[in-house]
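Progress report, Aim 2. The chain analyzed during this reporting quarter is listed below.
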Amino acid sequence: QVQLVESGGGLVQAGGSLRLSCTASGRTFTTYTMGWFRQASGKERDFVSAISWNGGSTYYTESVKGRFTISRDNAKNTVYLQMNSLKPEDTAVYYCAADVHARFFTSATLLPTDKDAYDLWGQGTQVTVSS
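Predicted structure tokens for the chain:
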């Protein structure tokens, strides 16, 4: 069974950077659309970013555009979220997620932003940004 394991969270001061990683087991990672979501305490789990199967298309929620970068290395079965210029409002548990249905999206506007579109989830990693 495919599992997703996140790492890279931690405590950082406002303006700092962190890089989250999510590694998947299994041989079909290259067909997955991957996403990052976050959930602040007492709030819903919200979409952050998504990337197509080959990394050619990416999409971001408005609040992180220009600060966060999603990427993937299919040879390592890993997706990354580089987070720069972090703000206290970025504090949350960050989850990676996989849409395993081999959709081969080629347009950023088609990448799923609804958490119900994703089939597999990691355990989450805490990101805390102090002011």
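The CA atoms of residues 21 and 80 lie 5 Å apart. The two ends are 40 Å apart (CA to CA). These observations will guide the mutagenesis work planned for the next reporting period.
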